[in-house]
Amino acid sequence: DVKVTQSSRYLVKRTGEKVFLECVQDMDHENMFWYRQDPGLGLRLIYFSYDVKMKEKGDIPEGYSVSREKKERFSLILESASTNQTSMYLCASSPYGADRVDEQYFGPGTRLTVT
Amino acid sequence: GESVGLHLPTLSVQEGDNSIINCAYSNSASDYFIWYKQESGKGPQFIIDIRSNMDKRQGQRVTVLLNKTVKHLSLQIAATQPGDSAVYFCAGSPLIQGAQKLVFGQGTRLTINP
């Protein structure tokens, strides 16, 4: 079974702090994704990566950055957390590279609260 | 671009009945569609997917129908059980070279009445 793990289930941070959300997948998948999920807005794509050290902006990249130094790990960084970044953050991975769309496997999510 | 929307934010059905959850999309070039189930406190779980060269695909107790003419897809769940209570998302992906993105609808919350 594919397993996508996220470093924390719940996180509380203060405004202005730098926040790291970590995601690891164990199935040698090429693609990894970060979404945020808010009530009434569904899942919105922040960033994705289809190869090590590669990254692409999603629909709402402002205020976020990412890092993919190893194939299995994709980190989401909030450089200076703000209250409007309070949300559920979901990481996902999928097996193939940039040229094919397939099922994405999701982690359990990190509920981040910024106070 | 692509937008994906679900017709109803909530759906309530009797246990044992069939459930039908609908979804519409805007981009006629969309090539791939997928349904996810999300239970409270968990990440979305894959249910079934379908590519644009198919009209119908069946899984265990689930069927996805794709109508490309009206840009509509539906998820049918047979003999709905209490464990089917969840939020259901459809997602579609436009055929864009060099990018693999899913665009998600807002979700339909399915409630099962005993």
Structure description:
The complex is a heterodimer of chains A (115) and B (114). Chain A has no helices and 11 strands. Chain A is mainly beta and 115 residues long. In chain A, strands 2, 4, 5, 6, 9, 10 and 11 form a 7-stranded mixed sheet that branches. Chain A has a 4-stranded antiparallel sheet with strand order 1-3-8-7, with no helix packed on it. In chain A, a hairpin with a 6-residue loop joins strand 5 and strand 6. Chain A is globular. Chain A starts with a strand and ends with a strand. The mean pLDDT of chain A is 93. In chain B, 0% of the residues lie in helices and 55% in strands. Chain B has no helices and 11 strands. In chain B, strands 2, 4, 5, 9, 10 and 11 form a 6-stranded mixed sheet that branches. In chain B, strands 1-3-8-7-6 form a 5-stranded antiparallel sheet, with no helix packed on it. In chain B, strand 7 and strand 8 form a beta hairpin. At the A-B interface, strand 5, strand 9 and strand 10 of A face strand 4, strand 5 and strand 9 of B.
Describe the structure in brief:
Chain A has no helices and 11 strands. Chain A is mainly β. In chain A, the strands form 2 sheets. In chain A, strands 2, 4, 5, 6, 9, 10 and 11 form a 7-stranded mixed β-sheet that branches. Chain A has a 4-stranded antiparallel β-sheet with strand order 1-3-8-7, with no helix packed on it.
Question: Per DSSP, what share of the residues of chain A sits in E-state strands of 2 or more residues?
Answer: over 45%
Q: What's the β-strand tally of chain B?
A: 11
Mean pLDDT of chain B: 90
Parts with pLDDT < 50 across at least 5 consecutive residues of chain A: none
For the biggest sheet of chain A, the summary is: 7 strands, mixed
Roughly how much helix do the residues of chain B carry, as a percent range? under 10%
Number of helices of chain A: 0
Identify the biggest protein-protein contact and residues per side.
A-B, 29 and 25 residues
Rg of chain A computed from alpha carbons, rounded to a whole number of angstroms? 13 Å
Q: Whole-Å distance between the termini of chain B?
A: 41 Å
Quaternary structure annotation: heterodimer
Largest sheet of chain B: 6 strands, mixed
Mass-distribution shape of chain A? globular
Helix and strand pattern of chain B: EEEEEEEEEEE
Tally of helical segments of chain B: 0
Mean pLDDT across residues of chain A: 93
Range of strand content of chain B: over 45%
Secondary-structure class of chain B: mainly beta
The residue ranges of chain B in which pLDDT falls below 50 over 5 or more consecutive positions are none
- State the secondary-structure class of chain A: mainly beta
